[in-house]
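Sequence and structure are kept together here, with a separate record for every protein. An example record follows, reproduced without changes.
>
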Amino acid sequence: MPAATPAASTRHIPDPFPRTPTLRRRLLCMLYEGVLLFGVLMAASAVYLIARPLLQQIGLDRPYIDQAWMFLVLAFYFSWFWQRNGQTLAMQTWRIRLETAAGVPPRWPQALLRFALAWLWLPPAAAVGHALGLTKGPFIGALAIGLLIWISLAWLDPRRQFLHDRLAGTRLTDLRPAPKS
């Protein structure tokens, strides 16, 4: 019987400090994700519009129900991809992966937690906009500033991870080959 080769007998041990994608690459990935989500949300809107007469009959066609529906669609979209292989379609293109500290994709509860935590920037930004009496463009500006502050918090993390990743116990990793020294 031939001896087992070292590669066959060792199992994969995740890198405890994988490379983190640059903030620029993560932002470009988010921008591309937004383009893809346009189609996802258009399809979700079509489903909502088809179901709207039924919702009206049973008294569920209330303000913000459509927004809650879109939020649930987004939660399912991201969590499904993240728990499946750690990558949405945009993340596959940009070679970025979401994983746990063990180096594996998060399971459903952790993926949903990350999704919810990624929205933590919104309530404070909206509260500031409302407190200042902002409307339309200036209110959107307040939201944009809140998002930029949230994203820039990654510079305070030693591994340059987003706050929601730190809180959820996940991390983004760069799947590109390491540069040769």
